[in-house]
Amino acid sequence: MLRIAVLDDYQDVALRLADWSSLGSDCDVVRFGCNLAGEDEAARALAGFDVLCLMRERMPLPATLIDRLPKLKLVVVTGARVRTIDMEAAVARGITVCHTFAGESAHATPELAWGLILSLARFIPEEDRRIREGGWQATIGTVLGGKTLGLVGLGKLGSRMAPIARAFGMEVMAWSPNLTDERAAEVGVRRVDKQTLFGEADVVSLHLILSERTRNIVSAGELALMKRGAILINTSRGPLVDEDALLAALREGRIRAGLDVFDMEPLPADHPLRHAPNTVLTPHLGYVTEGAYRAFYRDTVENIRAWREGRPVRVLAAPNLGETP
């Protein structure tokens, strides 16, 4: 019997969005609806499984945890980019790591970013709550037309933000450590330096990959440059922003922030960001759409089937292939 663990299925949809029965009657598929927060908890829960199906980077798989999973032979992770699996440790243990395609994430994440922008500009969550509690309007919103969007990062996701901004009548500027004039011109935006972007933009939206180079790339200095009342959007990775500096700016009422990502996920129940003013928070929903999930789980099942047949696909890391199960 091949035991398969489907992890972090928060919405309880994994088993109905793909045909797991196609893997055969000798497969036991078990879903986990909550995050296995600690390594000890994960090791106890997963020690008996041959295959782990990870949803993006919700559960890290460091060498120390891999060493405590004696039966593990295959890991499938949704999406092609992953920083939380120790690939060398996996290969050393004879474990194959495969990925899925990204699905519709290229559309989904920028769309959520605009949802956060509009929610902050027009105080939508606050006024929704107020009217449900029996009240009436109390805020004064701002329009986006005529304002400036600053994009930190102009890759696949950042570049999708630009035409939407222009549809609102916004000017668009961009900066990143490697951004060239040619790339900016290709997307139709103005390349500026970092200080200009944070000082002049009415909305700043982050679209960078997290690395040691980009960690805390938005620090107290950048936040201090932002206009009073400006909006900061982060749908990329929490550690791009210095969390303590962000909390200070929010509490002082200097800026507003729409956050879909956090340093620690799930966000702890007692985390100060849960009570921070001038924020709209979402629980890392950028890629969470039915279309993306259908693609993720379809590819996951296909990956397991191909691996069992001795012809693994979409391989991120693999030992020399020997006998197949």
From TrEMBL:
Q: Residue ranges of the D-isomer specific 2-hydroxyacid dehydrogenase NAD-binding domain?
A: 115-286
Tell me which Gene3D superfamilies the record gives: NAD(P)-binding Rossmann-like Domain
Reply yes or no: does the keyword NAD apply.
yes
Name the InterPro entries on file.
D-2-hydroxyacid_DH, D-isomer_2_OHA_DH_cat_dom, D-isomer_DH_CS, D-isomer_DH_NAD-bd, NAD(P)-bd_dom_sf
Q: Does the keyword Ribosomal protein apply?
A: no
Question: Which residue ranges does the record assign to the D-isomer specific 2-hydroxyacid dehydrogenase catalytic domain?
Answer: 37-313
Q: Which UniProt keywords apply?
A: NAD, Oxidoreductase
Q: Which family does it belong to?
A: Belongs to the D-isomer specific 2-hydroxyacid dehydrogenase family.
Name this polypeptide is given: 2-hydroxyacid dehydrogenase
Protein's organism: Pseudorhizobium endolithicum
